[in-house]
Design a protein that fits this description.
The complex is a heterodimer. Chain A is α/β, with parallel strands linked by helices. Chain A is built from six helices and eleven strands. A six-stranded mixed beta sheet of chain A has the order 5-6-7-3-8-9, sandwiched between helices. Chain A has a three-stranded antiparallel beta sheet with strand order 2-1-4, with helices on one face. In chain A, strands 10-11 form a two-stranded antiparallel sheet. In chain A, helix 3 packs across helix 4. The two termini of chain A are 34 Å apart. In chain B, helix 3 runs antiparallel to helix 4, helix 6 packs antiparallel against helix 9 and helix 11 packs across helix 12. The radius of gyration of chain B is 18 Å and the shape is globular. By secondary structure, chain B is an all-alpha fold. Chain B contains twelve helices and no strands. Chain B has one domain: ABC transporter involved in vitamin B12 uptake, BtuC. The chains are: A alpha/beta, B mainly alpha. The interface between A and B is medium-sized, with 30 and 27 residues.
Chain lengths: 247, 271
């Protein structure tokens, strides 16, 4: 079975502060991993090393056996925040198209536009292609940025706090979509919200500078307590809501 | 009104107004949407160092300003990206260092600097033919670069981090954009002077932003509006015998005020 991401002994320091501490992680292809941990625990930093946006001081990251920078065209990324002015002159379609960038001086072709239309339909934003990006609700915006992450048909999808601006009703359909996507690609989702773990998730990893746990969801409760330092109830999404073992 | 065109200096003035409007309409659109107004102010003032250097070396100051200002723009861009200095601190420092260098260079140049003030406050009526050719060349470089890299510049202005993620050399593109700002600054030096350049780079684009959602059209409208407003300001300065650069800027500011009021009065949905 192919391994999507191999992280070996990864450490990252920022201004003398240790953000990631000897992290070891392997993610099998077409699995769904949720990385949970408190804010400031290094989750977004871990993503940035996988994307090659920052270089770790120790250890290495391999994505489908390539370096992160070489693997960029098979990765899709939904960042936690995208800050832009509400009246920035770009519409939904063009935002998604930027995800299909081919290289310097190369223009977008018809197949790029077709992919954009297709992926916008998949996230439920069809019909809104010409809408200005500033005229969207938080949930719609999130779907557009997800479409941007998906438009290149990535093998690895990285989602950073995707549920932050999404209401519970839409969270459910979001997870349904992820369930579909899981058949085509590896998904890694990062969140500080313990309650966000859904039943579609295969594995959980608990990260707070160090990786405290990595394994199936059912046994994660103890690892999560170590990460957060207090007793927790792990509630899983799905109907009916399951309450997992509490320590 | 048309009798003013019999003077060749007036003809040159209107030609330089057109060439300046092309630069500030196109590049100004990026300045406004990417919110690099303060950086552009820093680059404009740093340009004065190039003017001083030109004097010192005995060259046409505007010509000497080209490499100096591009260099300053790249330095500002690199400090922003690479060093741990806060961006507006870095800009503030380079803003004044550029000005100070210009003053020192002029200081140590033997003789008298005749048209020093024209570089600070503009002197659209004394733009020589040689400068017009330089402005035309710079405009062409700007237009070709923007055309070639429009995808990159748009993606960069909207979401710089994601541009890197999709494989764009985002830092290089950012430095290229700042270099275009530097070239526009040089085009605008003689028209309104170093101190007022920022008005031309921001006001026409700030006005047209409210009337279109497509960047290409925003640039076109900014150029046309720029021509209209600089002509208007120039004409008013002729009629009332006022400093041309400052009159153009005030006329543009008035247009911005009226445009904002109009928008407020006609808008049915508060933004």
């Amino acid at each position: 079975m192919e391994t999507a991401v191999i992280i070996k002994n990864l450490s990252f320091y920022y201004q003398q502060k240790k953000v990631l501490d000897h992290v070891n992680l392997q993610v099998p292809h077409k699995s769904f991993l949720a990385i949970i941990g408190p804010n400031g625990g290094g989750k977004s930093t871990l993503f940035r090393t996988i994307l090659g946006l920052i270089k770790p001081q120790e250890g290495e990251v391999k994505v489908f056996d390539h370096s992160p920078v070489k693997a960029r065209n098979i990765m899709g990324y939904l960042p936690q925040h995208v800050s832009f002015l509400p009246d920035f002159p770009i519409n939904v379609l063009d935002t998604v198209l930027t995800g299909r960038y081919h290289g310097l001086l190369k223009s977008y072709h018809q197949e790029d536009r077709d992919s954009a239309f297709k992926v916008l339909k998949e996230v439920g934003m069809d019909g809104l292609e010409k809408r200005q990006i500033g005229g969207l609700s938080g949930g719609q915006l999130q779907r557009v940025f997800l479409a941007r992450a998906l438009v290149r048909n990535p093998k690895l999808l990285l989602l950073d706090e995707p549920m932050a601006s999404v209401d519970p009703q839409m969270q459910y359909s979001f997870y349904q979509l992820l369930d579909q996507l899981k058949k085509r690609m590896t998904i890694i989702l990062v969140t500080h919200d313990v309650g966000a773990v859904s039943e579609q998730v295969d594995h959980i990893a608990c990260l707070n500078q160090r990786l405290f746990y990595h394994g199936p969801v059912d046994e994660a409760a103890h690892g999560l307590e170590e990460v957060y330092g207090c007793p927790l109830e792990l509630i899983s999404h799905g109907i009916p809501h399951r309450i997992l073992r509490e320590h | 009104m048309l009798e003013i065109f019999q003077y060749s200096f007036m003809q040159n003035a209107f030609l330089s107004a057109i060439l300046a409007s092309v630069a500030c309409g196109v590049v100004g659109s990026y300045v406004v949407i990417k919110r690099i107004v303060f950086i552009s102010g820093g680059i404009s003032h740093a340009a004065f160092g190039g003017v001083g250097l030109g004097y010192f070396l005995g060259l046409n100051p505007v010509l000497a300003a080209v490499p100096f200002t591009v260099f300053s723009a790249i330095i500002i861009g690199l400090i922003n990206k690479r060093m741990d200095v806060s961006e507006d601190t870095a800009i503030g420092i380079l803003w004044s260092v550029g000005m100070a260098l210009g003053i020192i260079f002029i200081n140590i140049t033997p003789g008298y600097a005749p048209d020093l003030l024209s570089y600070l406050f503009g002197s659209i009526l004394t733009v020589p033919l040689g400068d017009l050719y330089l402005m035309l060349l710079l405009d062409l470089v700007i237009l070709v670069t923007v055309f070639l890299f429009q995808r990159e510049f748009l993606s960069l202005s909207f979401d710089e981090e994601y541009s890197t993620v999709v494989g764009m050399p985002a830092e290089a593109m950012y430095l290229m954009l700042l270099s275009l700002v530097a070239l526009s600054v040089v085009v605008l030096i003689k028209v309104v002077g170093v101190i007022l350049i920022i008005a031309l780079l921001t006001i026409p684009a700030a006005i047209t932003r409210n009337y279109t959602n497509r960047l290409g059209r925003m640039m076109l409208y900014s150029v046309l509006l720029g021509i209209l407003l600089t002509f208007g300001g120039l004409y008013l300065s002729y009629v009332f015998n006022l400093a041309s650069g400052a009159t153009i800027v005030l006329f543009m500011a008035l247009a911005f005020l009226l445009s904002s009021l109009f928008k407020r009065l006609t808008s049915q949905h508060p933004i």
